[in-house]
Amino acid sequence: MALNLQYEAIGKSFVQQYYALFDDPTQRSNLVNMYNVELSFMTFEGVQLQGSVKIMEKLNLELGLIQINGKKMIRTSRRTVVRPATDR
């Protein structure tokens, strides 16, 4: 397995694509395609979630609570840290 030397560009492109979907309520449901049905993991405020269904349920729940409480979500990205991995 070789190290992909374009890892930084790939990682930053992924983050841009992810948040473009996340920030657009009409496209947000497409985030499910970023997660593996069984193998994806996410930790959200200390809660560990596994699989695309559980992750999307949590995202939708949290975003729904923000809307119910009349709050506006403001997301900022200060830094993107990308780590190299070997290609499979």
From TrEMBL:
PROSITE patterns: NTF2_DOMAIN. It holds the Pfam family NTF2. It comes from Phaedon cochleariae. This is NTF2 domain-containing protein. Residues 10-59 form the NTF2 domain. Gene3D superfamilies: 3.10.450.50.
